[in-house]
Amino acid sequence: MADASPKTVLVTGAGGRTGQIVYKKLKERTDQFIVRGLVRTPESKEKIGGADDVFVADVRDAASIVPAVQGIDALIILTSAVPKMKPGFDPTKGGRPEFYFEDGLYPEQVDWIGQKNQIDAAKAAGVKHIILVGSMGGTNPNHPLNSLGNGNILVWKRKAEQYLADSGVPYTIIRAGGLQDKDGGQRELLVGKDDELLQTETRTIPRADVAEACIQALQIEAAKFKAFDLASKPENLGTPTKDFGALFAQTSARF
Ligand SMILES: NC(=O)c1ccc[n+]([C@@H]2O[C@H](COP(=O)([O-])OP(=O)(O)OC[C@H]3O[C@@H](n4cnc5c(N)ncnc54)[C@H](OP(=O)(O)O)[C@@H]3O)[C@@H](O)[C@H]2O)c1
């Protein structure tokens, strides 16, 4: 059942591609939410409007997060290490581009330490719900994404997910399929577990749908203490998801 009182919600990675959508959607629902954002740089803050509710902090630095989490009811974690493409790749010549992580910004630092720092800070501040967006693929240590830039990104993300599940704080872990920059609300969403969806044709999802799922999870008790994979059917195949309570009720896996 939905809770009627406005919740104070912090979105981290609010300058990122999904984080921006979550921040904007929450801002549009002022009757339900008081929103804060956390971004890494002043440039990212400007990019999302530069409001006073946007905190500039680095999640690798535990102390820098503390001001942003004071008094929040819920935290949505949308930070991630971001692989960069090595220069010189020419798609006309075929082959695959190579990727790297900048020094200090490897998944171990951003996805493990950075997410652990956020969970610890939020827990210390008495947060009542943490929503973490992770990625499908984490059940397979040999997943190709782990070789990207030698970052083991899915391994470190999964370690942070486990830390959250063990934290004692009510949580929702959303392991998204391949993210697409397409309109939200147009597709039927599918929840799964243990990467089973990766064996099917439905293993992608628009960022806008992931963003909406994060926000719906804030309001729906059935989302708590759950970890699930999330993907979408192609547009025009199936019925666009409107009832997120029913969607979250389809799964009961705690991790
Ligand atoms: N790409 C996919 O297909 C895919 C699939 C499944 C799941 N996912 C996951 O879904 C989530 C959302 O993805 P996305 O593509 O929307 O994200 P994104 O655009 O890559 O955004 C990540 C954000 O994290 C921030 N960040 C990085 N290091 C930080 C630090 N040390 N302190 C504070 N903030 C930091 C970045 O800020 P700066 O811009 O300032 O660096 C950026 O805004 C990520 O966890 C991603 O791994 C992605």
TrEMBL record:
Molecular functions (GO terms): oxidoreductase activity
Source taxon at top rank: Eukaryota
Listed InterPro entries: NAD(P)-bd_dom (IPR016040), NAD(P)-bd_dom_sf (IPR036291), SARED1-like (IPR044163)
Any single GO CC term annotated in Swiss-Prot or TrEMBL for this entry: chloroplast
Signal peptide residues on this chain, from the entry's feature table: none
Ranges where the NAD(P)-binding domain occurs: 13-219
Recorded family membership: Belongs to the NAD(P)-dependent epimerase/dehydratase family.
Official protein name in the record: Uncharacterized protein At2g37660, chloroplastic
